Amino acid sequence: MKSKITLLAFTFVFIYSCKAKKEATTTTAVGSVKVVETLSPVEQSTETVALASGYDGKNLYENNCAKCHKLYKAEDFQKEEWVPILKDMQKKARIRDAETLAIFNYLTENK
Q1: How far apart (Å, rounded) are the C-alpha atoms in residues 111 and 97?
Q2: I need a labelling partner for 23 at 20 to 30 A (CA). Which of 32, 86, 88, 91 fits?
Q3: DSSP category for residue 71
Q4: Once rounded to an integer, what is the mean pLDDT over residues 76-99?
Q5: What is residue 63's DSSP assignment?
């Protein structure tokens, strides 16, 4: 009986520890519009920006996004409109935060 309780306790701790970490919210000013982004703890670190610079955003955009739908031009959406689109597509495409950031930088570099 004692071993069953211990096993159940370890299982609970394991499942609880595997849950996604709590997300933080940051506000970014874009021109006169404020964009609220939900960032994971990984995105909050400055290391993510360094990692994103190591990825080719154009290549990632063309290879990941074109698998499921036509590619949109960067000009089709404003900078603040790309944020929720990329967050939603990140889950579907199963790409990392740094890769998503590189795609975002590619799509919004001239805006």
Answers
A1: 21
A2: 32
A3: P
A4: 92
A5: I
At residue 47's C-alpha, the angle toward residues 41 and 49, to 5°, is 95
- In a 3-state reduction of DSSP, which class is residue 73? coil
Highest-scoring range by mean pLDDT, 3-7, 31-35, 50-54, 76-80? 76-80
Count Cα neighbours of 23 within 13 Å in the Cβ-side half-sphere.
11
Q: What's the pLDDT band for 18 if we cut at 50, 70, 90?
A: low
Domain boundaries, the chain: 22-108
Q: Which of 73, 78, 80, 102 is nearest to 90 (CA)?
A: 102
24 in the Ramachandran plot: left (φ > 0), alpha (ψ -120 to 50) or beta?
beta
Look up the pTM and report it.
0.53
- Tell me, what's the pLDDT at 56? 87
The rounded distance, in Å, linking the Cα atoms of 55 and 58 is 9
